[in-house]
UniProtKB/TrEMBL annotation:
MF (Gene Ontology): NAD binding; oxidoreductase activity, acting on the CH-OH group of donors, NAD or NADP as acceptor; transcription corepressor activity
The keyword Manganese is assigned to this record: no
Cited PROSITE patterns: D_2_HYDROXYACID_DH_2, D_2_HYDROXYACID_DH_3
Protein name: D-isomer specific 2-hydroxyacid dehydrogenase, NAD-binding
Domain D-isomer specific 2-hydroxyacid dehydrogenase catalytic: 34-321
Entry keyword annotation includes Oxidoreductase: yes
Entry-linked CDD domains: CtBP_dh (cd05299)
PANTHER family (UniProt xref): D-ISOMER SPECIFIC 2-HYDROXYACID DEHYDROGENASE CATALYTIC DOMAIN-CONTAINING PROTEIN-RELATED, D-ISOMER SPECIFIC 2-HYDROXYACID DEHYDROGENASE FAMILY PROTEIN (AFU_ORTHOLOGUE AFUA_1G13630)
Organism placement in taxonomy: Archaea, Methanobacteriati, Methanobacteriota, Thermococci, Thermococcales
């Protein structure tokens, strides 16, 4: 009989063998489920006696967490943990782990690809040629990449790789990130600006690299778009709700935004009646920036490994809520 029960609340992968191999090492049974759109009560019903959870999109709310009777760890497939109530988990003494390094290359590649495709209006030309129009003027005006300014909102690992990959194109790179020092950005040849407003006013291209939090929800809205240069290009491979889509639509209609490259949208999948779908100068990919065969295997393996580490009594390699250690210590003293 297995020592532990680990529920995979939801997943899109063809197989869970990578997870199974990792969990078997600590005597854990893997229980797959598909609870992405389930209610809190439905999730609790399946996960109540689980020792650990591995989550992709399912909402692990405070209500769910309070209904978990044995859970020691919640692992998120991915970097962001916005679908897990980390505060509630911490209060209950549950470790939250993620996989912050599995797709740095893929997401930075995708970011650069969206940016270059937008600057050169590749999708617009492709559509024109396939509809019978062979005319360079379809995409006028195009502007040279060299000498332009790329503004990175946030300067974590992903943004740093984007900076490294864009440097050879001859762009000036600036960033706004209140949590880092000028000394760090200087190592990458990037200038740290003092405010988001300064970044928006001075950037020809803007790329978003911050997590979704209460502070970053609709970080770019009407006021922010008004501050931007005319013909600005926006790329978002972070989280959809960081951009107020109504404000983005307005900026596209007014011609303020020349092109947008989005791998994420406010609602996913994007609604069929979304006004963003009508624009030829908006590229939308289905939250795929993270994906390659190699990154998927790494993601599945490391998410399960994080759970296995906790169940075997170790502090996990990728701990999202280090405050939980104090909570657990206090509980042991009681």
């Amino acid at each position: 009989m297995a020592k532990f029960k680990v529920v995979v609340t939801d997943y899109e992968y063809e197989s869970l063998e990578n997870e199974r191999r990792e969990l078997e090492k600590v005597g854990a049974e893997l229980v797959p489920a598909q609870l992405r759109y389930a209610s809190p009560k439905e999730i609790i019903e399946v996960c109540r006696d689980a020792d650990g959870l591995i989550v992709q999109y399912a909402k692990i709310t405070r209500e769910v967490i309070e209904g978990l009777e044995k859970c020691k760890v919640i692992a998120r497939y991915g970097i962001g943990v916005d679908n897990v109530d980390v505060k509630a988990a911490t209060e209950k003494g549950i470790f939250v782990v993620n996989v912050p390094d599995y797709c740095i290359e893929e997401v930075s590649d995708h970011t650069v690809a969206l940016l270059l495709a937008s600057v050169r209006k590749l999708t617009l030309y492709d559509k024109a040629v396939k509809s019978g129009t062979w005319d360079y003027k379809v995409g006028k005006p195009l502007f040279r990449i060299q000498g332009k300014t790329l503004g990175l909102i946030g300067f974590g690992k992903l943004a740093r790789r984007v900076a490294e990959k864009m440097k050879p194109f001859g762009v000036n790179i600036i960033t706004y990130d209140p949590y880092i020092s000028p000394e760090l950005t200087e190592k990458y040849g990037v200038k740290l600006v003092s405010s988001l407003e300064e970044l928006l006013k001075n950037s020809d291209f803007i790329s978003i690299h911050v997590p979704l939090t209460d502070e970053t929800y609709h970080l770019l809205s009407d006021k922010e778009f008004e501050l931007m240069k005319d013909n600005v290009i926006i790329v978002n491979t972070a989280r959809g709700p960081i951009i107020d889509e109504k404000a983005l639509v307005k900026a596209l209609e007014q011609g303020k935004v020349m092109y947008a490259g989005l791998d994420v949208t406010e609602a996913e999948p994007i609604p069929k009646d979304s006004p963003l779908l009508k624009f030829d100068n908006v590229i939308i990919t289905p939250h795929v920036a993270w994906y390659s065969e190699e990154s998927q295997k790494e993601l599945q393996t490391k998410a399960a490994r994080g759970v296995a580490e906790v169940l075997s009594g170790k502090i996990p390699t990728y701990l999202v809520n280090p405050e939980v250690l104090d909570v657990i210590k206090k509980k042991k003293r009681r």
